[in-house]
């Protein structure tokens, strides 16, 4: 789908990662010998008059297995595959699924089978999912008007609601990328640039870095001594720091300004 442009990835730099995983698919051992977790939905079929292989036998060629959602479906599949034996029994695998594999079951269990017809795939804005421009989901189309937010969240958005999850996922998308952000203007510029180019991780990262590294670590911390102290030397230091130019060409001018400031203070 990506090679035929039926599915577009933004930004296009992630095409390499996409094809690397899909072109190098390998077997994955999903079984774990734990006391908790999702049991593997695989059932060993035992037939009357047939000797089953030992549990410790690595040769699985003589074993009969079926994979199904539950035991009822597993029995139906076993009958269709191996015949309707009167003493057919099933034994579910005692191992559990890998933790990451179990985590991937959440969207499947929540969404698979929820929409049985194409009509139910229409969103409440009366627009087909397939009608999205160039098969892309434009973030601007996902942002609803203020009246829609009030309708969906009459009591306001919870402080630890889905927005926090969206922010975390957006920043996680670029975990291998480096981004620099210094100052308010640069943070705003990076944020707008990210939204315009569909790089949501860049926008979210710029906002987080500005809030943590600039606002909290610098601006707020440097303002505390001035806010909590009434000493004249602190005020003089603040004024001198703000007025002192960093460029050496202003040394002569600064010497004159420093004298004026000291006299005024």
TrEMBL record:
GO biological process: valyl-tRNA aminoacylation
Keyword Aminoacyl-tRNA synthetase: yes
GO CC annotation terms, alphabetical: cytosol
Domain Methionyl/Valyl/Leucyl/Isoleucyl-tRNA synthetase anticodon-binding span(s) in chain numbering: 184-233
Native organism taxonomy: Eukaryota, Sar, Stramenopiles, Oomycota, Saprolegniomycetes
Enzyme Commission number(s): 6.1.1.9
A matching Pfam family: tRNA-synt_1
SUPFAM superfamilies on file: Anticodon-binding domain of a subclass of class I aminoacyl-tRNA synthetases, Nucleotidylyl transferase
Catalytic EC class: ligase
PANTHER family hit by this protein: VALINE--TRNA LIGASE (PTHR11946:SF109), VALYL-TRNA SYNTHETASES (PTHR11946)
Protein name as it appears in the record: valine--tRNA ligase
Family: Belongs to the class-I aminoacyl-tRNA synthetase family.
């Amino acid at each position: 789908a990506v090679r035929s442009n039926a599915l577009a990835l933004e930004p296009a730099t992630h095409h390499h990662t996409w094809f690397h995983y899909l072109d190098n698919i390998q077997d994955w051992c999903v079984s774990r010998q734990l006391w908790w977790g999702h049991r593997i939905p695989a059932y060993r079929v035992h037939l009357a008059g047939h000797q089953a292989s030992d549990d410790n036998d690595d040769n699985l060629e003589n074993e009969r297995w079926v994979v199904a959602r539950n035991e009822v479906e597993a029995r139906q599949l076993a009958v269709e595959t191996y015949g309707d034996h009167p003493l057919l029994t099933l034994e579910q695998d005692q191992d559990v699924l890998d933790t990451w594999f179990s985590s991937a079951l959440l969207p499947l269990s929540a969404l698979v089978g929820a929409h049985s017809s194409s009509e139910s795939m229409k969103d409440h804005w009366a627009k087909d999912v397939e009608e999205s421009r160039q098969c892309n989901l434009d973030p601007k189309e996902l942002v609803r008007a203020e009246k829609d937010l009030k309708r969906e969240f009459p009591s306001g958005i919870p402080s630890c609601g889905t927005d926090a999850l969206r922010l975390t996922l957006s920043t996680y998308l670029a975990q291998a990328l480096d981004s620099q952000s210094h100052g308010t203007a640069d943070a705003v510029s990076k944020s707008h640039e990210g939204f315009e180019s569909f790089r949501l991780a860049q926008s979210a990262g710029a906002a987080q870095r500005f809030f943590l590294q600039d606002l909290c670590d610098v601006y707020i911390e440097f303002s505390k001594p001035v806010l909590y102290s009434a000493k004249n030397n602190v005020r003089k230091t603040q004024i001198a720091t703000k007025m002192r130019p960093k460029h050496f060409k202003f040394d002569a001018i600064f010497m004159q300004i420093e004298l004026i400031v000291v006299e005024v203070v």
